[in-house]
Amino acid sequence: MDRIDGHSFGRRGFLAGSAAGGLVLLAGCEGMGGFSMVEAIRRLLTISAQRAFSRLTAPGGFWDNEVARFDLPDMFSGSSGTIRSLLTSTVFKSQLQKQLNLMAEKGAERAAPVVLEAVRSISIIDAVRLVRGGPNEATTWLRGEMGPALVNAMVPGLSDALRISRDPIVGQAIRALAGVDMSGIAGGIATRADNSIWSQIGVEESAIRANPQSTNDPLLIGVFRVL
């Protein structure tokens, strides 16, 4: 079972944590056919996030993933002077992109508990709409509700990672970015990683909607099988 920052991201751990809620309709929640729509969305988002972060925090989680791999932040590609000269080398540019993608794994470790806490605590008003929505409707809604929370959570860790990095390519790039502080560089990486994280969660949500049986969760199977 994968663990990130003390949180369990395994499917069995989630099911146990849900206290065998099964098909019980929660008081005050919108329901359909005896199922709790609010609880269904919480479980859908929780398992989607668990699966996404398990992938993204594994070695090569961003770089080896076509969904999550990201390009250089704008501060690199849109710069002039020394950094622009360095980036004319295809090898240098590719290696820098790879190192920043690898660094993003640490950012994802900090983002994971922020997402899971939001799923547990956020108010879900229109759960029926989210259940009946498109392939990644719930992910899109949650991202809108959380705003820049993941970027803010990732920046401190990425700043530290940049400071202690011994990779010569990263070191050269940082020195060449005249006038840009470490938190600014970290913010650029975090913004790219944020997009990747939400894309991956959306992919996982879509997969669960298409095959709810893969979760072994009776509530999700019951809700999404009847749609």
Task: Describe this entry's structure for a reader.
This protein is mostly helical. The chain has one domain. The chain is built from 11 helices and 4 strands; from the N terminus they run E-E-H-E-E-H-H-H-H-H-H-H-H-H-H. The chain has a two-stranded antiparallel sheet with strand order 1-2. It has a two-stranded antiparallel ribbon with strand order 3-4.
Largest sheet: 2 strands, antiparallel
Give the termini distance in whole angstroms: 31 Å
| Count of the separate structural domains | 1
Cα shape: elongated
SSE ordering: EEHEEHHHHHHHHHH
Pick out the low-confidence regions.
Answer: 1-34
Rg over C-alpha atoms, rounded to the nearest angstrom? 20 Å
Count, helices: 11
The residue-averaged pLDDT reads: 86
Strand count: 4
Spatial order of the strands forming the largest sheet: 1-2
Percent of sequence in beta strands: under 5%
Please state the structural category: mainly alpha
- Portion in helices: 55-70%
What does the secondary structure layout of this molecule look like, with pairings?
Layout: E1 3-4, E2 7-8, H1 11-17, E3 31-32, E4 35-36, H2 37-56, H3 74-77, H4 82-86, H5 90-121, H6 127-132, H7 137-146, H8 149-164, H9 168-176, H10 182-210, H11 218-225
Antiparallel strand pairs: 1-2, 3-4
Helix pairs in contact: 2-5, 2-10, 5-8, 5-10, 7-10, 8-10
